[in-house]
Amino acid sequence: xxxxxxxxxxxxxxxxxxxxxxxxxxxxxxxxxxxxxxxxxxxxxxxxxxxxxxxxxxxxxxxxxxxxxxxxxxxxxxxxxxxxxxxxxxxxxxxxxxxxxxxxxxxxxxxxxxxxxxxxxxxxxxxxxxxxxxxxxxxxxxxxxxxxxxxxxxxxxxxxxxxxxxxxxxxxxxxxxxxxxxxxxxxxxxxxxxxxxxxxxxxxxxxxxxxxxxxx
Length: 216
Ligand SMILES: [Zn+2]
Description:
This protein is an alpha/beta fold.
């Protein structure tokens, strides 16, 4: 099966998608990784991408589609892709559908994590990392204490690179761009909306149950 996972930035999508990859032997496709990989290979396209990014611009849909096509046509990836953070726009959605069709595949399942704004704010703003053992905690959901952490408290640092305004902007942008895509998949595929406000393990158990019922 090929699947897509949607979720707002900071909504725990990456964690869930890693779990799925491990349990279901899928290959995770994120456009960021594809772009970085192509740059590292220093292909002609990679060099082009590097200069686009160095100019502070975003890679065009054409460039992204070329990279996605390379992945889809690889027989090793046949029917075992999980798209994470792609498609981002309705146009990219149409391109992806076209490419899959060309190589006799389809999206079997679309998972959408629904997470409330204030949960995302707490997940991001509550994050603390230990500078000594690099464990990550959250002051709201998983506070460090004597049971789960042995280092001195002085090592715990809070990172301030995400301010609430930026987080909320990214959230709104995500919702605006993703809603038309979800509407599309509601009509053409199996869309599962999942309550992403729960504990990570609870969310994953739900996802796992859905995927175990799918066979194609
Ligand atoms: Zn530590």
